[in-house]
């Protein structure tokens, strides 16, 4: 009888634990965005958060933590409790900063995070202010090579800087780089004439372009974007040129596997719908779901490729 009692007690404890864990999520999830509101990453994060909330049944709340080239927000995620209630959206900056800020970075992109899912990918767009005389990328390049030309460009974050430098060098553009804290600030500076041009995602440029304040001269993908067929691919003139970015979700290292699985299931379902594909295409991006294992591979490959690229274009670590 005593053994039966112990067995029943054990079953009750096991069942209670299973129910307690199975209740995840039972409170809001915080999604940290390491960029200011209004930029491309912020737009993607809010779109993903809405769909995750619908699938998981709890609010997914955006928390913008910009600064230090995404290190403030991403570092916050790394230091958060590993309970599945704090996650972060990341870009290739996660991999790039490992090299650029090797002496000062406070987290490891592999050891301190649990990859959740790759979410989407996007090319970059080259844009000038509508008040400038440049109608094509070739005209901008030619102007930059004239005596006494003073062409400036601004980007936000290390991925923006790196893609901007890759573009500048591939096109042989003579320009001075000026860093900005967020995409919204840099594209606004171009629209106002403070900067000559920027290289960023269409998500960051779309509203100002639609308002007639920006003129988009080219896209960095291998071919023209389906949603914007009138914008030429830069490799139509500069053969072989292609630069594409991505977004993904991570959590602190060591979160419960069931939390990862549930978030993966929610993202897999929502990102595969025609509605989401249309929304991303309208933003100049493409849903690109990959599970936690595949996303971990993407991060590792990015660490290697971006380290090589940084050295090839001679970017100064820590800039």
Helix content: 40-55%
- Count the strands? 11
CATH topology of the largest domain: D-Maltodextrin-Binding Protein, domain 2
Biggest beta-sheet profile:
6 strands, mixed
* SSE pattern: HEHEHEHEEHEHEHEHEEHHEH
Total number of distinct structural domains:
2
> Approximately what portion of the residues adopt beta-strand conformation?
15-25%
CA-CA gap between termini: 72 Å
In the sheet with the most strands, the strands line up as 2-1-3-10-4-11
Q: Please count the helical segments.
A: 11
**Global morphology:** globular
Q: Which segments are poorly predicted (pLDDT under 50) over 5 or more consecutive residues?
A: 3-21
- Average pLDDT level: 89
CATH class of the largest domain: Alpha Beta
**What is Rg?**
22 Å
- In terms of structural class, how would the helical and strand content be classed? alpha/beta
Q: CATH homologous superfamily of the largest domain, by name?
A: Bordetella uptake gene, domain 1
Structure commentary:
- The structure is a single chain.
- This protein has about 325 residues and is an alpha/beta fold.
- The protein folds into 2 domains: about 30-120 and about 245-310, Bordetella uptake gene, domain 1 (D-Maltodextrin-Binding Protein, domain 2, 3-Layer(aba) Sandwich), CATH 3.40.190.150; about 125-235, D-Maltodextrin-Binding Protein, domain 2, CATH 3.40.190.
- Helix content is about 45%, strand content about 20%.
- The chain contains 11 helices and 11 strands.
- α2 (about 40-55) crosses α9 (about 255-270).
- Mean pLDDT is about 90; it is low at about 5-20.
